[in-house]
Amino acid sequence: MSKYFKNLVTGGLGFLGTNLINKLLNSGENVLCIDNCSTGQIENIKESWDNKSFHFIKHDVLDPIDFNVERIWHLACPASPLHYQLDPVNTARTIFIGTENMLRLAKKYDARILIASSSEVYGNPTIHPQHEDYKGNIKINSKRSCYVVGKRFAESLCYDYQRMHNLEIKIARIFNTYGPKMSIKDGRVVSNFITQALKNEPITIYGDGKQTRSFCFVEDLIEALIKTMECDYSNPLNLGNPFEISILDLAKMVKDKTSSDSKIVFNPLPEDDPLKRCPNIKKAKEILKWEPNISLEKGLELTINYFKNKIN
Ligand code: UDP
Which residue's CA is the closest to the ligand 1 atom numbered 23? Predict the structure, then answer.
């Protein structure tokens, strides 16, 4: 008989994975973490390494696995545009085949499955803020499409499994998230700006900096993921912080909070970079009784402290 685990976390060495695993372990639950160690880091989980409830297997979700699990948290996939565009075909395969492998496992053991979808399913949105029924504005031939279309297809696959096999599925559309355990080399804006500011190197704004994002502190996001797994709702839920800020203002805030001498410099905007992004979280508020409560100011301070220890 296959070994039993209450939780399987795929991509468990990544930024969200390690934060989620620590929370589950702290609640006394056991966790099987699988990760192919491509962008995730063993070092992220070192404080849990000796915890008897923590189990790790180096494994790629492209290959099936067989463990008797109760809940699957399917997070495995590079999420930074820098990383997911490096090998776009592998990104698309990881999303599609990886999700199917996890859905098959969920079917076999009648497990509940949550998949990490993304605000990227809305593409370069033309309505603002974005609600879950918005169909999005996407391109098929963009460098971002492997991820954008991949995540849409992953959602669609979940509904096929739900219809055909009556699976309990949960779809979390995760908006920009930041906080401790982000990799310094992640390539996304918060980690880039903090690292650059702490090293007094130029802060690199792509484009004119007028594009906006809405950043959710990881602790808030993990709470929302857990509530999503536990609720009875199976349609997609936007999870994020609706406080919206321009990238230029973010750069100024990071510079200010780090008391940095960095210059702010302007580099070309990457292809198809969304101009605005902000979640409408009405559904999450109603269904999960959740809303983020850590402000960007506070969250940045906590993240800067984390990065200070990493850089020094
Ligand atoms: N960005 C930037 N400088 C950086 C990294 C990113 O100005 O060093 C911009 C990027 O062009 C985008 C926004 O910050 O407009 C958020 O980018 P990120 O890669 O963090 O995530 P995205 O929301 O695009 O998936």
Answer: 176
DSSP 137: B
Residue nearest to atom 6 of ligand 1 (CA): 189
Instruction: Please give the number of the atom of ligand 1 that sits closest to the Cα of 270.
Output: 11
Q: Which fold has domain 4-177+216-239?
A: Rossmann fold (3.40.50)
Q: Using the mean position of ligand 1's atoms as its centre, give its distance from the Cα of residue 232 in Å.
A: 34
Residue 233 CA to ligand 1 center (angstroms) comes to: 31
Ligand 1: atom nearest CA of 205 is 7
Alpha helices in the chain (DSSP H): 15-26, 81-84, 88-109, 145-165, 189-198, 218-230, 247-257, 282-288, 296-311
β partners of residue 71 = 7, 112
Record the tokens describing residue 300, joined without a space.
């940045």
Percent of the chain with pLDDT over 90: 93
CA distance 244 to 256: 18
What spacing in Å lies between the alpha carbon of 189 and ligand 1's midpoint? 5
According to CATH, the topology of domain 179-213+243-275+294-311 is UDP-galactose 4-epimerase; domain 1 (3.90.25)
Q: Per residue in 253-305, pLDDT tens? A: 999 999 999 999 999 999 999 999 999 999 999 999 999 999 999 999 999 99
Q: In terms of Cα–Cα distance, which of 114, 89, 102 is closest to 34?
A: 102
> Active-site residue numbers?
147
pLDDT of residue 1: 64
